[in-house]
Amino acid sequence: MIDVQSFEDDREIPLTKVGVKQLRYPVRVLDKANGTQHTSARVDLFASLPQHFKGTHMSRFIEIFHRYKDDLSMPRFLDMLGAIRDALAASAAFGRMRFPYFIEKRAPVSGLAGMLSYECCYAGRVGEGGTRFTVSIAAPVSTVCPCSKALSERGAHNQRGIVRVELELGPFFWIEDIIDLIEKAASSPVYAVLKREDEKWVTEHGYDNPKFVEDVVRDVYAALRSLGRFPRFTVEAENFESIHDHNAYARAEYAGNASAA
Amino acid sequence: MIDVQSFEDDREIPLTKVGVKQLRYPVRVLDKANGTQHTSARVDLFASLPQHFKGTHMSRFIEIFHRYKDDLSMPRFLDMLGAIRDALAASAAFGRMRFPYFIEKRAPVSGLAGMLSYECCYAGRVGEGGTRFTVSIAAPVSTVCPCSKALSERGAHNQRGIVRVELELGPFFWIEDIIDLIEKAASSPVYAVLKREDEKWVTEHGYDNPKFVEDVVRDVYAALRSLGRFPRFTVEAENFESIHDHNAYARAEYAGNASAA
Amino acid sequence: MIDVQSFEDDREIPLTKVGVKQLRYPVRVLDKANGTQHTSARVDLFASLPQHFKGTHMSRFIEIFHRYKDDLSMPRFLDMLGAIRDALAASAAFGRMRFPYFIEKRAPVSGLAGMLSYECCYAGRVGEGGTRFTVSIAAPVSTVCPCSKALSERGAHNQRGIVRVELELGPFFWIEDIIDLIEKAASSPVYAVLKREDEKWVTEHGYDNPKFVEDVVRDVYAALRSLGRFPRFTVEAENFESIHDHNAYARAEYAGNASAA
Amino acid sequence: MIDVQSFEDDREIPLTKVGVKQLRYPVRVLDKANGTQHTSARVDLFASLPQHFKGTHMSRFIEIFHRYKDDLSMPRFLDMLGAIRDALAASAAFGRMRFPYFIEKRAPVSGLAGMLSYECCYAGRVGEGGTRFTVSIAAPVSTVCPCSKALSERGAHNQRGIVRVELELGPFFWIEDIIDLIEKAASSPVYAVLKREDEKWVTEHGYDNPKFVEDVVRDVYAALRSLGRFPRFTVEAENFESIHDHNAYARAEYAGNASAA
Fold first, then answer.
1. Would you list the domain boundaries of chain A?
2. Pick from B172, C111, D4, D10: most CB atoms within 10 A?
3. What is the rounded end-to-end Cα distance, in angstroms, of chain A?
4. How many B×C Cβ pairs under 8 Å?
């Protein structure tokens, strides 16, 4: 059967990435409390394509990912990329897998349990020039505005925000521990279920800990840096401002000791 | 040239709607302050299809809409649907046009100007069984939680919310006036630009006017009903809760005097 | 502790729906091949609110849903709504749960396996005036344009489309069987993984079965009607036209024998 | 009035970006056929924040952007960033403005006119280390699969795709000319309105020009490179495969003569 993808290509233009996007797949990842967790992912998989090939065989990406779907711990994700690279004889393979990660969380006073969802993303590269792997984790939080509190005789505007960290992998870590660190840096965590005694606690706790997006980013940054485990990371915070229809945003980047303040 | 769409169909299944979706078009609508306003719309256009036709001629929808794009006042939108109905010899034509409507708004104390965007939608039907036209308008607002305020010794959680009304058309009205009515029913309007003196005002004004989503819906409902201009309407409010990662929601429906409390 | 939600309200405006939206939860549903399936859902839960109450207790929705999350077969979903209705002493409770449903599917010639995702939604109402439950299922398909094929000397434009049915519940059915019925009504199913021999089959099979969105809707409609199991249903098809940047759409509604042609 | 943002910060963590996101604004940009074009934009604006300041004054971003909204040609966009940098005394200011750009396009045979929308984005940086400005332009196209055509006895699968280029600014250019270049590299352009004679043309023209995503990327790349006007650019193509529920993707990067093949 004719194999058009393997035809010679004489345009002399190498492609940095060729592959599949927006694949939806059920996957299993590690879970600190329960061993493993079932979730549903959106997956992009790519390989580099040398200039002399016309196309890549895109079915291979899916065939290989399918074999790994039931155990996508971080090291296995890199193994999967390695298998793609080998199958396609590519100089590098790339992949990204976004998924909601669910954690059962208890209300701060009543102790009632509900599930919260945290958007996570594995992103990796395996190939010539080395392996690279980052995990990003996004946690919803609550922030109270320090300026509004300082200016106003009563109340202070506050809002839901989202904090996202992207961590370059060093030693093993639990997603749960990073989420915990993020929530401690906000004015207050958010919860799935809150009774009145909990709502009072969250309101007062938040009011006592006013934070700009700038503050949240710096406090998460300082906490991550003090762990000393991640060679590089970025921290972003975005507030869905309650007094505007746009968002407030801040970002910091850590690139190792050289650039640390 | 062969016309497959006009073939006879013997499956005896009439289609309630056939047409085009997700058309993006630049349009011009009426503007209270400036005469007309340029904006960009997403448009869906449909006609009913009798059981004996195999298909509709979808290019006609676009040809006709294109002729109307520079003047899409509410009556002209219905004229456009009438033209589609005639061109396709359909028993009814339907359409929906969603667009951001921009208003320049001044901060409450400093008076500084910024633009705010309000998602609007025209939805109409022209045909056997009569004409129907509704306009929906969504306004971002700020709400302060009455429960949190009552329970807490300091502060009160608050958040951005969105209030959407859908109005069945009676006499002419300005979108601006409905937005004004919605904003008055919230704890506070939101603004594009706020200096410190404005932020103090918004914070204190909101704190002095705590509202559940239920309250906002009822106050908008009462204000719309008292206008006595809309034969039917619905009101929805959705709060992006600052203490949760989900939203709070309420909805009321007015169906004329018969069902009014 | 003060309970603001239970305050009397004298605005005399009943709310048709009050509740929570955009809750993200891990859930388990029935699976024909594997017994049960883990997936992740977006959930909206509401109750009606009589005019004399100021607000509802939104934490109850989550508390109750949390208890049901590990077994959300269709009857259990209605039980869950019944429990919400009881807990809130509401005249009616409403709910909607959207989730990707995953099925392992084999390529038509090579037999290679990959997962496909089908967006499903349970929507129910329990209360005065009866129980209502619908399941909607959306399947991606491939369609070849009959007009393009008839007019052109070679080729025919084709595209990915999505077919969505909404079924009012009668006797038990498997989601898998409905998907199978939809795919048979398209020009061709789509697949996660296709080798060259499969791609040839899909291309030729699609070319031999050209279908407008109108045809797909009618053929799904006829197949569902002939099952005689669903008291009411709707069928929609939307094509991501390869020759346009907008979509083609058709819809039919079945409301029992009275309205059947 | 107290100015919390100007407080000293001793955490010694500089922020790479602080600002506002998801601002929606009506703007005016240059238009080859009509002089200027009104459209609606989503805007993100940032400045760097030195480590010794606690926060930035976010209202300034909006005040300044508001003054520029009626003339956002590419050079004026950079002027606007310069004004932000000055107002905030920041070492750098950054901005991104995404907007649909509308072009009236005529069907290839009938000559009928319809509007098409192209997603564009200006992205700039003004500050220490120099000025950087890129424009990205995304055009929907139609692609016919060469593999499917070669393997199949009749037909060939085809689909809508999207091609996006990101161009680092050299001399002035028209968005229209880049779109024209992209459309020529696809199997066929897409259109808003097509009569039967046009549909025949598009089908046959596409069938005669089969292209993988890899081919489209390479042909756009070669055409851009031969213009010799852009110091750096990237080209991406994504196909909404008609035989899959995921997309095919390719990307190439041009970084000047040194890296050109």
1. 1-98, 129-261
2. D4
3. 61
4. 144
Q: What digits encode the pLDDT tens for the residues A71-87?
A: 999 999 999 999 999 99
Of residues C153 and C52, more confidently modeled: C153
Alpha helices for chain B (secondary structure H) = 59-68, 74-88, 146-151, 175-185, 196-207, 213-227
> Topology of C129-261 in CATH?
Urate Oxidase (3.10.270)
Amino acid at D95: G
Residues 6+ apart with CB under 8 A from A80: A64, A65, A67, A68, A72, A95
Check CB contact of C87 with chain A, cutoff 8 Å. no
> Three-state DSSP class for D255?
coil
The 10 Å Cβ neighbour count of residue B174 is 12
Chain B residues 41-60 with a CB less than 8 Å from chain C: 44, 46, 49, 51, 54-56, 58
* Number of Cβ within a 10 Å radius of residue B177: 11
Q: Are C66 and C107 in contact (CB under 8 A)?
A: no
Same topology between domain A1-98 and domain A129-261: yes
Amino acid at C51: Q
Has domain B1-98 been given CATH number 3.10.270.10? Answer: yes
- CB contact B144 to A (< 8 Å): yes
Neighbours of C240 (CB within 10 A): 21
User: What are the angstrom distances between the C-alpha of D41 and each of A247, B261, D121?
Assistant: 15, 43, 9
- 8 Å CB contact of C192 and D144: no
Model confidence at C261: pLDDT above 60: no
Min Cα distance C57 → chain A (Å) is 9
Residue D34 CB neighbour total at 10 angstroms: 11
Distance from CA of B245 to the nearest CA of D (A): 19
Cβ neighbours of residue C205 under 8 Å, at least 6 residues apart? C108, C187, C188
User: pLDDT band at B51, cuts 50/70/90?
Assistant: confident
Quote the mean pLDDT of chain A: 95
Three-state SS at B130? coil
Q: What's the pTM value of the predicted model, to 2 decimals? A: 0.96
Residues A138, A207 contacting (CB under 8 angstroms): no
DSSP three-state, residue C247: strand
Q: Where are the beta strands (DSSP E) in D32-78?
A: 35-49
